[in-house]
Write a structure and sequence with these properties.
CATH architecture of the largest domain: Alpha-Beta Barrel
Enzyme class: lyase
CATH topology of the largest domain: TIM Barrel
Mean pLDDT: 96
Radius of gyration: 22 Å
Helix content: 25-40%
Organism: Starkeya nomas
Structural class: alpha/beta
Distance between the termini: 13 Å
Number of helices: 10
Largest sheet: 8 strands, mixed
Shape: elongated
Strand content: 15-25%
GO biological process, one term: putrescine biosynthetic process from arginine, via ornithine
Pfam families: Orn_Arg_deC_N (PF02784)
Low-confidence stretches: none
Order of helices and strands: HEHEHEHEHEHEEHEEHEHEHEEEEEEE
InterPro entries: Ala_racemase/Decarboxylase_C, De-COase2_N, De-COase2_pyr-phos_BS, Orn/DAP/Arg_de-COase, Orn_de-COase, PLP-binding_barrel
Length: 376
């Protein structure tokens, strides 16, 4: 917790659970990514946290933006950033949304199928497209499924289809999995990208961009490599697979940009056991999966939790949210160790929650307000 967040929480009016993000940390993270890969443009993944203050700060620093919807595109344009700094990075778009984005000036679109190419060709003539490929997400704490991307061999056909329809086949993208702690994870994906570049050249058209995606981690319970380590490993892989003809590159940090910049302050609503001899207590908070902690699904993301009684003797606890839904349980497979002295009414701090919390917060489920957000 930064001193700025500590001071804010000390003086804030009590209004339920909230997330507080320190913009100084966001700015420092952007600068670290820019230094780590100086020849790579940074496209902040807006979905991680679209708060206007964060978008404005990043726009002022020169960031570009990866958007998943027209609504996110409008948020970015509201900062004064030009449409040339926006990528419509979702591979699943309504045709009318493609048309609207093109009308707003966006010219860079993600695809992963011939059908998506055809949508773009119909309403965004001459636009640039990059094809997302499937890749191994081994080492990621939040692996991405087969929902997005196509096999590398298919990508060549998709890009050629774009070329034949008058679009500009611009490049290749991939995502090595969110919260990726293996700095070498980009190597095999870049090998596939290089092969696609060569195959496209053989078919009579050239590519110029590799979108390296996101995956850069925030620190939760374990240390993670610094941005510089990722930059060095990625540059080695680019040199290995592209030689002296390194293409344009972009990255799409989201979690790594804002995750560690924020924390949630919550309150203990109830502490109980399921039987007299149960060795595990249940600690119910005023926030759960439906209030912003959706990434605790399958216990993939384990947030650091601090209490005012840290240092006292501890015992295993299951955490759960306040809603009338039995799925609103956070850590049951692997309970967390919390102080025996923890009491109803105590505040707890859930750290590294600046990303994928407000955007996953339910709208008035069970009548509970969406997660309040403060950016300072």
């Amino acid at each position: 917790m930064t001193d700025r967040i500590r001071e804010f929480l000390r003086n804030r009016r009590e209004d339920g659970p909230c997330v507080v993000v320190d913009l100084d940390v966001v700015r420092a993270n952007y600068a670290a990514f820019a230094r780590a890969l100086p020849d790579t443009r940074v496209f902040y993944a807006v979905k991680a946290n679209p708060d206007a203050a964060i978008l404005n700060a990043l726009a002022e620093m020169g960031s570009c933006f990866d958007c998943a919807s027209v609504a996110e595109i409008m948020m970015v344009l509201a900062t004064g950033a030009g449409a040339e700094r926006i990528s419509f990075g979702n591979t699943i778009k309504k045709e009318r949304d493609v048309a609207r984005a093109f009308e707003l000036g966006v010219r860079l679109f993600a695809v992963d199928s011939a059908e998506e190419v055809e949508k773009i060709a119909r309403v965004a003539a001459g636009a640039k497209v990059f094809c997302r490929i499937l890749c191994d997400g081994a080492g990621a704490e939040w692996p991405l499924s087969r929902k997005f991307g196509c096999e590398p061999e298919m990508a060549v056909d998709v890009l050629e289809h774009a070329y034949r329809l008058g679009l500009e086949p611009h490049g290749v993208s991939f995502h090595v999995g969110s919260q990726q702690k293996n700095v070498e994870a980009w190597d095999s994906a870049l090998a596939s990208a290089s092969a696609i570049f060569r195959a496209c050249a053989e078919r009579g058209f050239t590519l110029s961009l590799v979108n390296l995606g996101g995956g850069f981690p925030a620190k939760y319970l374990q240390d993670v490599p610094a941005a510089e380590a990722y930059g060095e490993a990625i540059f080695r892989a680019l040199s290995r697979h592209f030689g002296n003809a390194i293409p344009q590159t972009i990255i799409e940090p989201g979690r790594g940009m804002v995750g560690a910049a924020g924390l949630i302050e919550a309150e203990v609503v109830l502490i109980s056991k399921k039987s007299e001899d149960d060795p595990v207590r249940w600690v119910y908070l005023d926030i759960g999966k439906f209030g912003g902690l959706a990434e605790t699904m399958d216990e993939a993301i384990r947030y650091p939790i601090r209490t005012p009684r840290d240092g006292d003797a501890v015992e295993p606890c299951v955490l759960a949210g306040p809603t009338c839904d039995s799925a609103d349980v956070l850590y049951e497979k692997t309970p967390v160790l919390l102080p025996v002295s923890l009491a109803i009414g105590d505040k707890v701090l859930i750290e590294a929650t600046g990303a994928y919390t407000t955007t996953y917060s339910a709208v008035a489920f069970n009548g509970f307000d969406p997660l309040r957000s403060y950016v300072i």
